[in-house]
Amino acid sequence: MFCKGKNVFFNNGCSFQDRDGIQIGDNCIIGMNVTIATLNHGLTLETRNTTYASPVTIGENVWIGSSATILPGVTLGNNSVIAAGAVVTKDVPANIVVAGVLTKVVKVIHSN
């Protein structure tokens, strides 16, 4: 089930693979060509044809840059920023900026 909050902006070319739920909080910005996937498969030869799903949860005030990929089971905390082109494989805490193909924390967001 796809569930979006209020005042959410989606740019062109986004792709959503929803098999176990995508939840997007209020006031989010989703950049061009962002991919959000909830479906994965095993890695071994025996399990490669077996799929499993995990929901994706996006908090409030999240900005996902263009061409970022959010993989199954990930939660993005409130006020987090995902840099353009990032591949997010693990949860991102609130108020954090992540960047890179294997994302790493690059900045903590402090409120004024």
From TrEMBL:
Molecular function via GO: O-acyltransferase activity
Database matches in Pfam families: Hexapep, Hexapep_2
Residues folding into a coiled coil are none
Q: Which SUPFAM superfamilies match?
A: Trimeric LpxA-like enzymes
Judging by the UniProt lineage, the source's domain of life is Bacteria
Q: Does the keyword Repeat apply?
A: yes
Q: Keywords on this record?
A: Repeat, Transferase
Transmembrane domains' residue ranges? none
Q: Which PANTHER family match?
A: ACETYLTRANSFERASE C18B11.09C-RELATED, SIALIC ACID SYNTHASE-RELATED
The text of the family note is: Belongs to the transferase hexapeptide repeat family.
State what protein this is by name: DapH/DapD/GlmU-related protein
